[in-house]
């Protein structure tokens, strides 16, 4: 990585977001060249994914709201749509406990 090459971002989409990627004939995972750090929202926009169909994002295995995520070249990113059943939301880290 110190040789000046930019590592692509590894992108996965789930549920009906995956259907969009399949229609575009993207591989699973899809590799996207990202030259600089950006927000997860910016990445979704660059990929022309429908923002209203994204509830959460995984970045390198950590789930968070899309607006909280920062993506760097070489990261692994997964976009999760709304509608994930309740127990799975907690297991995936999409729900925070009471503070």
Automatic annotation (TrEMBL):
Concerning InterPro entries, the annotation shows: Mopterin_synth/thiamin_S_b
- Name of this chain's protein: MoaD/ThiS family protein
SUPFAM superfamilies annotated for this entry?
MoaD/ThiS
Q: Which organism is it from?
A: Metallumcola ferriviriculae
Source organism, top-level taxon? Bacteria
